[in-house]
Amino acid sequence: MEAKEVIELSEKYLIPTYKRFPVVLRKGRGVRVWDINGKEYIDCLAGIAVNVLGHCPRKVVLEVQKQVQRLIHVSNLYYTEPQVKLAKILIENSFADRVFFCNSGTEANEGALKLSRIYMKNKFGEQRHEFIAAENSFHGRSFGSLSVTGQEKYHHGFEPLLPGVKFVPFNDVEAIEKAITDKTCAVILEPIQAEGGVNIPDKNYLKEVREICDKYKILLILDEVQTGIGRTGKLFAYEHFGIEPDIMTLAKGLGGGLPIGAILTKEEIAQAFAPKTHASTFGGNPVACAAAVATLETILEDGYLLDYCQRISKYFMKKLNGLKEKYPEIIKEIRGIGLLIGIELTDSGVPIVEKCLEKGLLIGLAGDGSVIRFTPPLIIEKDDVDEAVSIFDKALKEAIK
User: Quick one: which residues bind N(2)-acetyl-L-ornithine (predicted)?
Assistant: First the structure.
């Protein structure tokens, strides 16, 4: 097919939930993708923080190929080796004792909400159903995860949402404590608000939230769908803040490009999910798990890639801060940890993203649309950074004219 035909058929047959760019991508390798016409792009969006090892990483591809030829799907009525291997790696490298596999971040957060409610009901013998979430947060688009998403623009037309959710300002410990009642079940937070604009909390914020949750005997759920799997230079972002959650959710980078999500938790809490309380037909699929095992083994091997992520991040941030000095009338602030980087502009970032696309750079937006988001693969090299920043520079220069 030609690009025009693909776009026309998409417009004809797909439900229009996305406003897509007029580009048909056909191939990807490393940090590069090529469209159907052969044009090359540097991918600094990486499937929205999904392709942590870049496009078609060799080890992931080989393991997926082998698994597809061996066993594609059975069900969770039986044991499979890739699922157990993945569970072992996750548990041995996190705070958790148990893991439940699903297919996406939304599903993981939905399951985390269910798990926290049933655990609190079993523990206290009464319904503790209220959740405290942060303003400007994003946890997904199903009814439960949407209900704890603190952005009204996603709520419109879907009300009424799940009752018993209280929103408080992000990075405000006192607001959380004031919101707690005898019906509070859990606090759900992103360690760093990614979709909300790459908002980074104060150093002691999560530690103080952890203390409050312990004080009032409520659960702390950390949504690491976008911050996990090496994105911040640690395997999980909570490691930067010196705490452990009670429940953590993962997805995006976990499968190295394949769809998979996970709920991680401690033994006592996990036991609340007895047989028939929760399930997923495709959760823990052998092919997705094989991809995730290969992804995690690559990231964890000698700890090199996590250290490298932190080093290349400093280089990236230095280059971007140079642009901030060059364009103070456009760039308001640059913030980030690892390769989760947000550039807050003084106006909408839409024209900048479009200009970068024309010039061969894929980036995204976050927050209210005034934050440019860079979430490149962890394997991005200095030459790639230089080229990406150069394109971004040209786009900013054109925006001034």
Answer: 141, 280
Asked if residue 225 belongs to a known ligand binding site, the reply is yes
Structure tokens at 100: 């439940």
- In single-letter form, the type of residue at position 285 comes to N
Is the CATH number 3.40.640.10 carried by domain 58-302?
yes
Residue 100 labeled ligand binder: no
The helix or strand, by DSSP H or E, that contains position 385, with its residue range, turns out to be helix 382-400
Q: Mean pLDDT for the chain?
A: 97
Query: Could you tell me the residue ranges of all domains in the chain?
Result: 3-56+304-400, 58-302
3-state secondary structure of 318: helix
pLDDT of 401 over the 80 cut: no
Tens of pLDDT, residue by residue over 283-299, are 999 999 999 999 999 99
Tell me the whole-structure pTM to 2 decimals: 0.97
Q: Is 224 annotated as a binding residue?
A: yes
Burial per residue of 74-92, b for 16 or more beta-carbon CB atoms within 10 angstroms, e otherwise = eebeeebebbebbbebbee
Q: 246 in helix, strand or coil?
A: coil
The yes-or-no answer to whether 3-56+304-400 and 58-302 have a common fold is no
Average pLDDT over residues 172-180: 98
Share of the chain above pLDDT 70, in %: 100
Q: Is 141 annotated as a binding residue?
A: yes
Look at the domain 3-56+304-400 and name its fold: Aspartate Aminotransferase, domain 1 (3.90.1150)
Is 223 annotated in some ligand binding site?
yes
170 marked as binding residue: no
Q: Which residue has the higher pLDDT, 303 or 79?
A: 79
Write the CB contacts of 13 (distance below 8 Å, at least 6 apart in sequence): none
Annotated binding residue at 226?
yes
